[in-house]
Amino acid sequence: DLDDTAVAPGRPLPWRALYETEGEPLRYRVIMEPTDQRWLFALDLAEPVEAEIGMTRDYRLLARRPVSQPFAYRVSSWPRYRMDTGLPRWLVMRNLQLPEGGNPRTRALVAELRSRADGPQAFVQATLAHFASGGYRYTLTP
Question: Over the stretch 24-55, which tens digit does the pLDDT of each residue have?
Fold first, then answer.
C-alpha cells in the first residue's frame, strides 16, 4: 500500500489547490524497467492518470508496489506551473532560511550569492547559474 504521505490512487489530491498549471498538459505513456522501488519517472509537474499510481505531497509519483517487472503507465504533465501558491507567509519565510549550523563554506557561498541578488527570484537564478558554470559534476566514485 501507499504510505501516508501519498494520496491513495484515484482519490482527489488535497493539495491540488496549492499549485497552478498553465496551458494544456502533455499526455504521455512511460514504459519503465524494473527498479524494485515505488517511485516513478515523469516530467514536471506530473499528475497520475492511472488509478494504481499515487502522488506524494512533494509531487512524486508512487506505484502501489515496487516496480519488479516492466511497467507501463500514463501521466499528464504541465511544463508551466507554480507550486505552493497557497502557503502561509511564515512557512514561505521558514523555507527560505538556511538551517542552523551547517557547512561554513556553503553558508559563505549563500551569503555571497544573496548579497548580489535583488530578491528571492534573482537569488535562485544566481544559484542556478553558479551550479551551471561552476564545473560541478556527478560521480559514483568521489
Answer: 999 999 999 999 999 999 998 898 888 788 88
Only one residue has cell 516513478, namely 40
Query: If you ran DSSP here, which 8-state letter would residue 69 be given?
Result: S
Which residues have a Cβ under 8 Å from the Cβ of 53 and sit 6 or more positions away?
9, 40, 61, 62, 63, 64, 73, 75
Is residue 112 a contact partner of residue 74, using CB atoms and an 8 Å limit? no
Please give the angle made by the CA atoms of 14, 52 and 86, to the nearest 5 degrees. Answer: 15
Residue 106 DSSP one-character state: H
Match 501516508 to its residue by C-alpha cell: 4
Contacts of 75 (CB under 8 A, 6+ apart): 27, 28, 29, 30, 40, 42, 43, 46, 47, 48, 49, 53, 61
Asked if residues 87 and 15 have their Cβ atoms less than 8 Å apart, the reply is no
Has residue 85 got a pLDDT over 90? no
pLDDT 10s digits, 95-130: 878 788 889 998 999 999 999 999 988 999 999 999
| Coarse DSSP helix, strand, coil percentages of the chain, rounded to the nearest 5 percent | 25, 20, 55
Report which secondary-structure segment, H or E, holds 122.
helix 120-133
Whether pLDDT at 21 is above 60? yes
